[in-house]
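To whoever is on call:

I kicked off a structure prediction for a single chain this morning and the downstream step that reads the tokens threw a length-mismatch warning. I double-checked the sequence; it's 225 residues and nothing unusual in it as far as I can see. Pasting both halves so you can look.
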Amino acid sequence: MTDGGPVTRSRSAWSDLVAVMDRLRSPGGCPWDAEQTHESLLRYAVEEVHEVVEAVESGDRDAMREELGDLLLQVVFHARLAQEHPDEPFDVEDVARGVVEKLVRRHPHVFGDAGAVEGADLHRQWDRIKREEKPARGALDGIPPSLPALARAQKVVSRLRRAGYPPPVADAVPDDADLGSRLLALVVEAEGRGVDAEGALRRTLRAVEADAREADPPGPIQDVD
């Protein structure tokens, strides 16, 4: 594939994807792909994640397949760039191998002899294995600061609860509390009920938008002097 020949059907689609990405990035490939860096691609990775979310929540199977492919492309693209690092190169096989090893290691009840584990015990086992992998890891380590605020708040509340720290009590927040405290109380309530706060708000907004468009299709935004 790196010689510029056509994609063959004799190989797996995964091999074809890796080969196509290699061709695009190699000399004589695509100028735009050749000038990209890990940093320049970040915006596209974020966009693709949101597009996958929209496809899943809308129930559009064709869009879901397409958007998952676009997200997979981002993984393959970053892995191809990583091959070029002068001191610490890795490729997509290393990425996949690392995921396989992590999944097997963190599921001893499936791949080992730990026996059946369910519910809270399953979470405790997962957390214990992660602590063994990274002994210095704190309860809140690894939560991306760039997560949307609702999603990040719910992640923090969940991590604290599982670590034994009592989360704020939703019904203990006074009516005159600041907006942030009231929002956090709703997140605590959502986490306690097993509801995804971000997803719940997206669904409600989607319904509001649909009603608004049906009632009065929006025109162009008018400039206000």
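Update from on-call: the warning came from a stale cache, not from the record. Cleared it. Sanity check on the structure: Residues 179 and 185 are 10 Å apart (CA to CA).
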